[in-house]
Amino acid sequence: MKLGYIRVSTIEQNTARQLDGIELDKRFEDKCSGSNSDRPALNQLKDYAREGDTVLVHDISRLARNIEDLINLIKFFNDKHVTIQFVKENLIFSHDLSNPINNLMLTLLGAVYQFEREMILERQKEGIAQAKLAGKYKGKPNTINRQAVWALLDQDLSIRKVAKELGISPVSVQKIKFER
Hints:
The protein is an alpha/beta fold. The chain folds into two domains: about 1-115, Resolvase, N-terminal catalytic domain (Rossmann fold, 3-Layer(aba) Sandwich); about 145-175. The chain is built from seven helices and five strands. A five-stranded mixed beta sheet has the order 2-1-3-4-5. It starts with a strand and ends with a helix.
């Protein structure tokens, strides 16, 4: 079977261009970050794929954003005798096909995609820092009722009990406790 794995980072993004025009027996689509490998559709694909299947992915960055996850996922599928094909890069990885050039290209391109992701995050941090200095970035609005936290703490409840009572994290309770 030809199985397609498609991933975009946000629900607003369109998946149409990925694997467009390729006939697939089944599609697995994630609309979430590729920064971790615990993704709903990816997990379904891992469970669904059987020996002899081919998983088609638009490009390497759609499957994984770091080298370690990329290599582990390819190994996982190859150990199940499932072939992985990256359409854009024209790379194929199979349990019975050892190709040193493909392995080199995978490592190089995976490193480039990982580097690109790290640079995006670094630029994002720099932009946020500049916006904060200019007073344009305030961060997430504070939605925790501090009065309620202090009232429960005044009743000698533990930090954990206050957190559980209010449905917030113990770290948040601790920070608020020391604001007073």
